């Protein structure tokens, strides 16, 4: 009888790894500590629960690295992408999902698979070699005891950063006499997609008053052991962005470009706060890019100064948590195995990738590599010309271990395409060349039996 492959963590990466292994015909034991051990960010015991945004970001597979990653995962029969597509919400050119229906869908498929056994309870230390192959995919909320065990086994100083959660608002509490529905630049193939975002405009005085309130608001106090932890630049709290300069938010999540206010079509907004639908019913909206560490009372006070949100009712307020990841370029081999313990693989955000899709993608790769190892097959990881390959190359040696920080997938991780000019003017042609090459190389990797 084939020895089961153990997976610790039922988030995006662990769920995808379990699915890839199980559908290859091998037994899996998936360990999830919830609900026996709760985290402050999770609300359910479902697998692949989304605790921050409900967006998988751009779905453009011809001109965007994230969209290309979507394409590659779909080609590899990804459960995460299948459920994302099944529970998609209008979001312009992005892929957003109904968070509850999505995680419920993933859970239903995982629980129904005959090759997957679920064991609830905390794994407090790296398992012994008696377990055989193990994939650690505990993500940003790895329990402290397991994190300590990882540090003991790697003999490395901890690397961590803070990740923040954006608030969610009840749609019927938003004043639509001030707000309006429109995707930036009217992007999308359908009217529903072209009106996927809810927009709240600000004039210059309102914007400056908002910045003043934001800077003056009481913030979450960090414990002594957390105070030296840096933020990940791709998920900065709005107050941290505001501290970097009064115009920072206006050039970030509050940029007013590509939008026309139908209530005042002749007046250009100084800044715009966007909200995105958070569930299929359209009853909940999350504030795009508004991760925050303000205290709860301060959040309601400050966010209700936004035009259209004066009477906002919050389904969930924002929060902040400490995110832990390993120094993968130093610790992992090119098969995502711990160099000192080759029966142990890591997958997901704990490896230093950032984002839902990137985490699931590393789970997909870890699962397929584990299957090959269990079957006695030697397979190379995908080329770095693919989105998957670019990510795994980066975290297992492409990045400098001395300055390693979490990374989203982006075309800067890909080798240049020959005979394609650089510069902004040639960007569309260059990105198309990247994605065409990646699709061919990814398809080739899959066909070779990966």
UniProtKB/TrEMBL annotation:
Ranges where the MnmG N-terminal domain occurs: 5-377
InterPro entries: FAD/NAD-bd_sf, MnmG-rel, MnmG_N, TrmFO
Subcellular location: Cytoplasm
Organism domain of life: Bacteria
Catalysed reactions listed for this entry: uridine(54) in tRNA + (6R)-5,10-methylene-5,6,7,8-tetrahydrofolate + NADPH + H(+) = 5-methyluridine(54) in tRNA + (6S)-5,6,7,8-tetrahydrofolate + NADP(+); uridine(54) in tRNA + (6R)-5,10-methylene-5,6,7,8-tetrahydrofolate + NADH + H(+) = 5-methyluridine(54) in tRNA + (6S)-5,6,7,8-tetrahydrofolate + NAD(+)
Positions contributing to FAD binding: 9-14
Signal peptide range in chain numbering: none
Main localization category: cytoplasm
The keyword Cytoplasm is assigned to this record: yes
Its EC number(s): 2.1.1.74
Names of required cofactors: FAD
UniProt keyword annotations, A-Z: Cytoplasm, FAD, Flavoprotein, Methyltransferase, NAD, NADP, Transferase, tRNA processing
Enzyme class at the top of the EC tree: transferase
Pfam assignment, any one: GIDA
HAMAP family (UniProt xref): TrmFO
Protein family per UniProt: Belongs to the MnmG family. TrmFO subfamily.
Function: Catalyzes the folate-dependent formation of 5-methyl-uridine at position 54 (M-5-U54) in all tRNAs.
Identification of the protein by name: Methylenetetrahydrofolate--tRNA-(uracil-5-)-methyltransferase TrmFO
């Amino acid at each position: 009888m084939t020895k089961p492959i153990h997976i610790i963590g039922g988030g995006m990466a662990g769920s995808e790894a379990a699915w890839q292994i199980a559908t290859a015909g091998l037994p899996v034991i998936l360990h999830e500590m919830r609900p026996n051990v709760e985290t402050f960010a999770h609300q359910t015991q479902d697998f692949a629960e989304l605790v921050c945004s409900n967006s998988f970001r751009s779905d453009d597979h011809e001109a965007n690295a994230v969209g290309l990653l979507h394409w590659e995962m779909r080609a590899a029969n990804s459960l995460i992408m299948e459920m994302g597509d099944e529970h998609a919400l209008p979001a312009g050119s992005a892929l957003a999902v109904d968070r509850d229906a999505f995680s419920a869908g993933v859970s239903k498929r995982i629980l129904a698979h005959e090759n997957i056994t679920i064991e609830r309870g905390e794994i407090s230390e790296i398992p012994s070699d008696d377990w055989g192959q193990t994939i650690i995919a505990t993500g940003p909320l790895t329990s402290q005891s397991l994190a300590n065990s990882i540090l003991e086994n790697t003999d490395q100083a901890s690397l961590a950063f803070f990740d923040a959660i954006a608030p969610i608002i009840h749609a019927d509490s938003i004043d639509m006499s001030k707000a309006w529905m429109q995707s930036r630049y009217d992007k999308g193939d359908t009217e529903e997609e072209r009106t996927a975002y809810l927009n709240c405009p600000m004039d210059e005085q309102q914007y400056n008053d908002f910045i003043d309130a934001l800077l003056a608001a009481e913030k979450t106090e960090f414990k002594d052991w957390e105070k030296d932890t840096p933020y990940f630049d791709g998920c900065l709290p709005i107050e941290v962005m505001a501290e970097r300069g009064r115009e920072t938010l206006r050039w970030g999540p509050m940029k007013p470009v590509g939008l026309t206010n139908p209530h005042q079509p002749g007046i250009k907004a100084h800044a715009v706060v966007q909200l995105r639908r958070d569930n299929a019913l359209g009853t909940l909206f999350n504030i795009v890019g508004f991760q925050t560490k303000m205290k709860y009372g301060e959040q309601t006070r400050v966010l209700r100064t936004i035009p259209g949100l004066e009477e906002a009712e919050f389904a969930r307020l924002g929060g902040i948590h400490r995110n832990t990841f390993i120094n993968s370029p130093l610790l992992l081999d090119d098969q995502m195995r711990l160099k000192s313990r080759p029966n142990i693989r890591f997958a997901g955000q704990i490896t230093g990738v950032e984002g839902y899709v990137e985490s699931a993608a590393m789970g997909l790769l870890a699962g397929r590599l584990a299957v090959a190892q269990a079957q006695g097959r030697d397979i190379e990881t995908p080329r770095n010309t693919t989105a998957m390959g670019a990510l795994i190359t980066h975290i297992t040696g492409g990045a400098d271990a001395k300055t390693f920080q979490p990374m989203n997938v982006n075309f800067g991780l890909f080798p240049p395409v020959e005979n394609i000019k650089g510069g902004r003017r040639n960007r569309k042609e260059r990105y198309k060349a990247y994605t065409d090459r990646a699709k061919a190389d990814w398809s080739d990797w899959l066909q070779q039996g990966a």
